[in-house]
Design the sequence.
């Protein structure tokens, strides 16, 4: 620090206060994971005010730990505390985010994802030093399920009700019977959501991560959709098949080392008049556009997951999770597509349409 610098004490105090908030939030990640795994939030949902002993009894856990956990949750605003009765309550709004996996507001998958990133910190610090990539498959095992649980509520709320209807002529094609590919499908949540809505169509999900494909196949069997849905271990540039009426990328294109090559391969596998739907994290076209809470989450995830994942692959373009529509348009057009537009958006996603 230079000798001529002066310190704004109020600004310093405000910044340290923000850091204290971040520290509490970071430590709470572990407690949120415990609440998720042990069913503490689910047991509180709709139960009204509970004492620590009552919650412990409901969840077969130890009262002393539960008492401290509840105090931490109350301090963070996750639950409410009544000092007179010494009881804690999960309000219905918080319950939608913490206890209802079918809710569009459900957030616990994000904390599962965050826990995996924290576990991988030494590996990623070394990548900072070397510049080498870290493959998706190299991450802590909690990442794969956590990613599905984080994105699935938004997909369930939007894919068939809003995003596909926003594409030109695609919904009608799917209702009549179409072939659909989901590239970078992970555990297959997006694939299965589409398949359940469009029973006349057939779907195939591709992902290079074998463990995710195995999980997707199990989910298809459990949902009774395996007759129309298949999942294959394959990369975005070498999956087999053609005549696809719709090819989808759900929060996956920016993770690819060679997104231009991937899209060029997609173009060769499309049926005449076929469409590509590219769902990407919401982002503006400049850094200053993304200096907000959503951008913060995505830049952090991009630093720890998306950028190292791309750098681990050939080309290693490393678009990052906040590439923005203008940069994505360049990639799409470089791959040989002549039509590109923003079809829809949410606070968390851009939905882009491309055709040859």
Sequence:
């Amino acid at each position: 620090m230079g000798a001529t610098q002066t310190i704004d004490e109020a600004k310093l105090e405000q910044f340290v206060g923000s850091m204290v908030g971040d520290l509490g939030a970071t430590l709470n990640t572990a407690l949120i994971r415990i609440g998720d795994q042990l069913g503490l939030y689910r047991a509180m949902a709709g139960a009204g005010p509970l004492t620590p002993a009552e919650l412990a009894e409901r969840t077969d856990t130890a009262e002393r730990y539960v008492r401290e956990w509840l105090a931490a949750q109350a301090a963070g605003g996750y639950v409410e505390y009544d000092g007179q009765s010494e009881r804690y309550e999960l309000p219905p709004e918080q319950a939608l985010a913490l206890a209802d996996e079918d809710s569009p507001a459900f957030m616990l998958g994000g904390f599962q994802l965050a826990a995996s990133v924290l576990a991988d910190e030494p590996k990623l610090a070394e990548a900072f030093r070397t510049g080498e990539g870290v493959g998706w498959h190299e991450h802590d095992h909690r990442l794969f399920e956590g990613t599905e649980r984080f994105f699935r509520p938004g997909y369930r709320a939007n894919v068939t009700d809003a995003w596909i209807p926003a594409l030109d002529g695609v919904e009608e094609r799917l209702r009549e019977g179409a072939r659909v590919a989901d590239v970078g499908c992970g555990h297959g949540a997006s694939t299965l959501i589409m398949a359940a809505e469009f029973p006349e169509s057939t779907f195939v999900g591709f992902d290079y991560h074998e463990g995710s494909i195995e999980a997707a196949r199990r989910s298809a069997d459990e949902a009774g959709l395996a007759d129309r849905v298949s999942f294959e271990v394959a990369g975005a540039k070498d999956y087999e098949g053609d005549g696809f009426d719709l090819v989808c990328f759900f929060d996956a294109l920016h993770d690819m080392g060679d997104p231009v090559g991937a899209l060029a391969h997609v173009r060769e596998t499309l049926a005449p008049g076929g469409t590509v739907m590219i769902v990407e994290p919401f982002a503006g076209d400049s850094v200053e556009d993304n200096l907000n809470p959503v951008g913060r989450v995505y830049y952090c995830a991009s630093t720890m997951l998306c950028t190292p994942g791309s750098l681990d692959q050939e080309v290693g373009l490393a678009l990052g999770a906040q590439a923005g529509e203008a940069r994505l348009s360049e990639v799409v057009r470089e791959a040989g597509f002549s039509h590109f537009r923003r079809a829809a958006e949410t606070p968390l996603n851009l939905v882009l349409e491309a055709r040859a």
The CA atoms of residues 161 and 197 lie 10 Å apart. The two ends are 55 Å apart (CA to CA).
